Amino acid sequence: xxxxxxxxxxxxxxxxxxxxxxxIGMLLKPFWxxxxxxxxxxxxxxxxxxxxTYLFHPIVDRLYSAGIxxxxxxxxxxxxxxxxxxxxxxxxxxxxxxxxxxxTEHIPTFARQYQNWLSALYAETSHWPDGIQEQIDKGIExxxxxxxxxxxxxxxxxxxxxxxxxxxxxxPFISFYLLKDxxxxxxxxxxxxxxNWRTRLFRxxxxxxxxxxxxxxxxxxxxLLIGVAATVIFWLLKIKYSIVLGAIIGITNVIPYFGPLIGxxxxxxxxxxxxxxxxxxxxxxxxxxQFVEGNILSPFIVGKSLNMHPLFIIAxxxxxxxxxxxxxxxxAVPIAAIxxxxxxxxxxxxxxx
Length: 353
Fold this sequence. Notes:
globular, 2 domains, single chain, AI-2E-like, mainly alpha, about 0% strand
């Protein structure tokens, strides 16, 4: 038999074997999935602590280089960060839960009000082709159902937040020892990596850190500033659910281009239940905040560390949104940056060969 045919049959056999293993794995899912879920839950504090370590490691290194003892530097960062978060949770969580519950209870009232507006819209658009009004009505109903489900889940999660306090309480301790012994962690990772991969893998990790490190830290800080500013302004103007709306605006602000629009929609819908004046006021506030973020905060704090074309970012957002919804939109850009760096390293490696 021709050698090329043997190679083809060999490759097809490997593909068939992989598909068979995948099929058997899906059949055995009831047995291995609970174990995998337990492992993921157990490792979650370590992942969160690792992310916190990654964020604060450069700051601790700067303080250490300035002559401050490493442990003292970590304690300073801990006092500012976890102390601020603890105080914010202590003061904000009860109000946040109350606003979520109040919003969930008033969803039927909001739905009736929006339905009245929709009826008025029907009267104005009665000359439109048949079927359009029916599709609009179904779309509004789906949005109401999803909104109700989302806020009910958030409310239930916050009410059961105490169950996760023990797991969350160990995160600062894990992060402390990671920050304190970061050199030992790096040395251990170096020795655990196969010798043939060490140089390439650590060069890849260095490039990922150079590209994503400043972006992630800066973007999170900008989102915090925008979220706090929106919350304070909404509270001063006595707009309902100011903490919830500010949190949504802050979280969605991490999404390039589309984030401000997504974050503004809930605020505008709530403002519409108050008065037309508040709709214009909220729209103006969101526009001002995004102007400040886009022209002052982001260029100064985040910069252009990603070095990615806007079309590439938009494509990543579309794919991420289709795959993972809002979470996909949030992580799309960092994952796209990692894929870009991996492709560049792969091309360099194969071109050398």
